[in-house]
Amino acid sequence: xxxxxxxxxxxxxxxxxxxxxxxxxxxxxxxxxxxxxxxxxxxxxxxxxxxxxxxxxxxxxxxxxxxxxxxxxxxxxxxxxxxxxxxxxxxxxxxxxxxxxxxxxxxxxxxxxxxxxxxxxxxxxxxxxxxxxxxxxxxxxxxxxxxxxxxxxxxxxxxxxxxxxxxxxxxxxxxxxxxxxxxxxxxxxxxxxxxxxxxxxxxxxxxxxxxxxxxxxxxxxxxxxxxxxxxxxxxxxxxxxxxxxxxxxxxxxxxxxxxxxxxxxxxxxxxxxxxxxxxxxxxxxxxxxxxxxxxxxxxxxxxxxxxxxxxx
Length: 312
Hints:
This protein is an all-alpha fold and 312 residues long. It is 66% helix and 1% strand.
């Protein structure tokens, strides 16, 4: 079964296939990537495809947990060995190793991502919001920190913003997918939040399995995750000046388009038990306009304002 997971089976056989793959598997990412320079877009897409591949191993349900764990650990060993050990997908590994080597990308973040995915292979309950933030760092902040040097970001504020944007996006996912996650045995809403509003975890699990709408208490818990996500989006904005101008618009578009999902959640009265919040055409058009205005405002500031562009 491991051999059936190839670069081609993921939908990426040649460069010409990548746009179609991204449009199908990550519409928001595909839209934002259109604003990247061509060579940078190719390299970013390679890393994105790698992370999507890892996520699919853990998340699609096509594999038994034991086999999924073995595959993830083989990728983790490959990263730790500096790309020397065998992996289930050699063609993907070669493409990813080339990008890591070209930019000197740190492998620790991808290892942290795999750690978060491994924990998702068994029923999951998040106890507190610090635990939630750590999980969001593992599966999303680590992605931002991997991509940051590739995009030309090396200063501490820029890296912090990359982590914040990843966390914001994952909190958006969690707020959007409450019902779906609960039906898969995953309680990402912190237990301390549920208890604070007088809700037992078993109560929300039953609600999800019966496809019933959230009451005012659960609406308040989901609203709290939306508030937290927006706080991290605001933190990410502080790093926009640290982005090289040639890639800045793409990242702002990514943040604005993904953040628009929060507005849909609000329009749906925080019912993410039965409904999946999807940003429509008008939402994305408005997000693109906001992104362009932010980019234009920042374009007057030039390059990264941090001293020596370093991580001092």
